[in-house]
Amino acid sequence: MSGWLLYLPSFFMVEFLFYFLSALILGSALMVVLNRNPVNAVMFLLVVMGGAAGLFFLLGAYFLGVLQILVYAGAVVVLFLFIIMLIAPQTKLKPSPGKTTFAASAAAFALLAAGALALAGAGSTGVTLGEAAPVGHLSKEYGYYLFSVYLLPFLVAGFLLLIAMVGVILISKRFPREEQA
Question: Tell me: the pLDDT tens digits for 101-132?
């Protein structure tokens, strides 16, 4: 009776893995945002990065999948985890969200909903998977596109990571309290 699994088409497994990894990424990303413990949030971020690497592997972009694991999951997330553990977050000093936070959240949700509706309203582009241009899998092509076409987003991402690390260092730095007379 268990032999019927052998006769399922191979695309079933690919679709199952895609939906499984997508649900894992969405659930873990939601837990990153909603989790109050920063160490647990970073661990969920690690799951998100691993799931994204899995999606790269499903697409056949093995080089990008390995880079995703090595650079983001292996370096950046671990660095964030060490920084968070070094600053020893105090759970007592968590402020409650104010009106500005709720207004910003509502505006972000409205933008997200408008983008989703615009994307759904755009419909199909008419390009099927058979007609789409193949994605190159060579490191030389990745390097060319990374440092020519996508140089600005690459540099912006690098500067954002640098700013985030400087911000964490400034937040974790302890300033001496001034004594009031």
Answer: 888 888 888 988 888 887 777 666 555 555 55
Q: Which residues contact residue 60 at a Cβ distance below 8 angstroms, ignoring those fewer than 6 apart? A: 135, 137
| CA 95 from centre of chain | 26
Average pLDDT over residues 72-88: 75
* Token pair listed for 17: 């893995």
Residue whose C-alpha is closest to residue 13's, from 5, 22, 24, 4: 5
Residues of 47-78 as b/e, b for ≥16 C-beta within 10 angstroms? bbbbbbbbbbbeeebeebbebbbeebbeebbe
Q: Structure tokens of 83? A: 């920084």
CB atoms within 10 A of CB 45: 21
**Tens-place pLDDT, residues 156-170:** 888 887 887 788 777
Does the predicted model carry a pTM greater than 0.85?
no
List the alpha helices (DSSP H) in the chain.
Answer: 10-34, 38-59, 62-67, 77-87, 99-122, 139-146, 151-172
Specify the 3-state DSSP secondary structure of 72: helix
DSSP-based three-state secondary structure for 124: coil
Rg (CA), the chain: 22
